[in-house]
Structure formats: C-alpha cells, structure tokens
From TrEMBL:
Annotated signal peptide: none
GO molecular function: RNA binding
Upper taxonomic lineage: Eukaryota, Metazoa, Chordata, Craniata, Vertebrata
GO cellular component, one term: CURI complex
Ranges where the RRM domain occurs: 59-157
Highest taxon listed in the record's lineage: Eukaryota
GO BP, sorted A to Z: ribosomal small subunit assembly; rRNA processing
Coiled coil: 168-199, 249-276
Pfam families: RRM_1, RRP7
UniProt keyword annotations, A-Z: Coiled coil, RNA-binding
Protein name: RRP7A protein
C-alpha cells in the first residue's frame, strides 16, 4: 500500500541521514529484492602532515561499514559512475596502507573474514571523491546485478563450503612446486656456504660450521639404535629398584642364578685349560 511505501521511504531517509560527523551515508542494496538498505559511510581520506601513507591524498575515498561479502570488484563497479577507479583496497581496520605481500597459496594461510571492514578507493582524478559524496542523493544504489552478482545468505554459505573442499591433485601440484623451490634454495645456500668455507671475511674472521672436525651426529640406523639404547639405560636408572619385597626376592634369585651360571662356566674353562696343558712335570 501507499502508506507502507511511505514508511519504508521515511525509514530509508532516516538511515541515510544518520551519519557521523564528517561522513556521508550511502544507501546500497545487494539485491533487488532486499527491503532495507545497507549504509556505507564515506569521506575523503586525510592524514596528518608528516604521516606516511600509501594512499594518495585528494584522490582517495575512505569507506566504513563494508560487509564481509562485499569484494573490491563490487566497490569498484559501484564507484565507477563517479570517475575512473585506480585501485580498491579492503582492510580489517584503518592503517597507513602498507604494501601487502601477494598471496601465493590457494590452500595455506587463508584468512577468513568475520566482521565488517574498511576500504580505500583511489580515483584517477580528485573529482571522483567529490562525486562519490553526492551519491547519497540518488537513493539506494544496487551493487549486485545479473551480470555481476554478489552472493549473500544461503548462496554465500554454499559457495564458501564448495570453495573449502580441497582438490587433491591441485594441492599435490602446489606442494610439489613448493618443495622444488625449497630444495633449489637449500642447494644454492649449500653451494654458497661451500664456496665461502675457509675464506676469511673483511675483518679476517673465518666462519666455523658443523662440517669441521666434529661434524654432526650421522642419522644412520646404527646411530639411532645406540641412541635408543642410551635412552633406555637412562630410564632404567631412574626407575625405583627393590621398592617392594617381591622385587627384592626376585633380585636375589636372579643374582644367585647368575652366580651359579658363572661358576659352571668357570669350571668348564678350567677343565679345558687343564686338558690342553702340554707341560707335564709328573
């Protein structure tokens, strides 16, 4: 009805008007069927004199309240109507905008976005920032289109789950490529160390490595067995011996059995020595 539409329009006006000092509220929608708009708070990015920043002044638009499902491409398409967009950077919190390292892995060090973020939209001309502030007069702006849809709700969860399923062949290829680069790097470091071994530096010092007179313990099977035997002996010394009466009796019984066995072995050895004796004085 007309009254409901009027109430919704009044609600949208209140939402758009409720912006902090210095900011302009832009009402956007991520779908044509979305009833209540979402507000993006924008202003010209300014920094104090002497403070370093990677975002050019007078050409950068600072955007607050960016939802986690809004991508840089979506913001770029939204603000393209204001002028050519040079770059869009989305961050967890405001900062100097230092250059980020390029993500090289698809499976490792993946960061899950859980909350609202901030964005820096850099235009090619300063007029784009001023034009972006006037978008609040146009009413709710539609970000998601048929050609460039923005997934939200159930469709976003389904896409996130599908992306979380790891392709084994692709993962194996990435791990193999990483290990090849790692082996190549280690080989280069070893070749460089071998080339510099025994060569004094500028101050006359010679770097001593483990490959000198006493190299590291070789990891052979015999060395591993000796190490395990030593560990076993250490544990045996730490154990409580003859703590109980039955342990004391067992120890005595084993000691007597060993003495008897040794006595019999000594008798046999003496008898053998007598039989082999060649010098017989009588």
């Amino acid at each position: 009805t007309a009254s409901c539409r009027a109430k919704m329009a009044a609600g949208e006006e209140r939402v758009v008007g409720a912006a902090p000092a210095g900011y302009t509220a832009l009402a956007v929608k991520f779908g044509a069927r979305q009833r209540s708009p979402h507000c993006l708070l924008v202003k010209e990015h300014q920094v104090r004199e002497g403070a370093g920043t990677a975002h050019p002044p007078r050409r950068t638009l600072f955007v607050l309240n960016v939802p986690p499902y809004c991508s840089p491409d979506s913001l770029s398409r939204l603000f393209t109507r204001c002028g050519p967009v040079q770059s869009v950077e989305i961050c967890d919190k405001p900062g100097p905008g230092e250059k980020k390292e390029k993500q090289t892995s698809k499976f490792f060090n993946r960061k899950t976005v859980t909350g609202f973020q901030v964005a820096y939209v850099v235009f090619r001309k300063p007029a784009g920032v001023q034009a972006a502030k006037t978008l609040s007069r146009e009413g709710p702006l539609l970000i998601s289109t048929e050609s460039h849809p923005v997934k939200t709700g159930i469709s976003k969860w389904i896409a996130s789950y599908a992306a979380s399923v790891v392709d084994r062949e692709e993962l194996k290829a990435e791990v193999d490529a990483y290990m090849q680069d790692y082996d190549k790097k280690i080989a280069e470091e070893e070749a460089k160390a071998a080339k510099q071994e025994g060569v004094p530096d500028e101050e006359g010092w010679v770097k001593v490595t483990r490959k000198g007179r006493k190299p590291g313990l070789p990891r052979t099977e015999a060395a591993n067995l000796r190490m395990l035997e030593r560990e076993k002996q250490k544990r045996a010394r730490k154990e409580l011996l003859n703590f109980y009466a039955w342990q004391h009796r067992e120890t005595k019984r084993e000691h007597i059995a060993q003495l008897r066995k040794k006595f019999e072995e000594d008798k046999q050895r003496i008898a053998l020595m007598r039989a082999q004796r060649k010098f017989r004085p009588y």
